[in-house]
Design a protein that fits this description.
8 strands, three-stranded antiparallel beta sheet, 2 domains, 169 residues, 7 helices, elongated, alpha+beta
């Protein structure tokens, strides 16, 4: 009965889940991180092998891609944050207290009155104590957080840098 209803509603089965649209690799990777990867995962040979095994087991899906390709697909997924070099984790923004990000935004706006470019390292040094309390231990993780929340307000990371620029109106 359920299979008939799902079939007539044009849902696609991906192992343990159903979707009313075709899921992208980024969607599927986000699902895997959210439900099965409980700690930051380095996207190297072993990390990709772990994701491929999870995709086969839980989604009946073959990622069948190179490390570089998987890395690119993860970087396209909004809820997967870079937390260290080649290392990602799922980020649930609904569970995140945004008070700190608004403090950071205020700091950035004040600093842009004095200079044109701000490196994330400078921001990390100012907010180091508060960041460590929420388990953000490095500037790369902070960079991802700023990009997640503030990319519409600032230009983040031009030319593969950790720099932040003021958006001109």
């Amino acid at each position: 009965m359920i299979q008939t209803v799902i079939g007539t509603q044009k849902y696609t089965k991906y192992g343990d889940i159903y979707s009313n649209r075709k899921l992208t690799d980024s969607d599927l990777l986000t699902y895997l991180f959210k439900h099965y990867v409980n700690k930051p995962l380095r996207i190297d040979k072993d990390g990709v092998a772990q994701l491929e095994a999870l995709a086969r087991r839980h989604l009946n899906y073959e990622l069948g891609a190179s490390i570089r390709s998987i890395n690119a697909r993860i970087r396209n997924a909004k809820s997967l944050l870079l937390v260290d070099r080649l290392t990602f984790e799922y980020f649930d923004s609904l569970k995140f207290d945004t008070t700190l990000i608004w403090e950071i935004e205020y700091y950035l706006n004040q600093e842009f009155n004095k200079r044109k470019i701000i490196n994330v390292k400078d921001v990390f040094e100012i907010f180091d104590g508060k960041l460590k309390k929420i388990e953000f231990y490095n500037k790369i993780h902070l960079y991802s957080l700023i990009k997640y929340f503030l990319e519409n307000k600032f230009i983040i990371g031009q030319g593969n840098t950790l720099n932040i620029y003021k958006k001109e109106n």
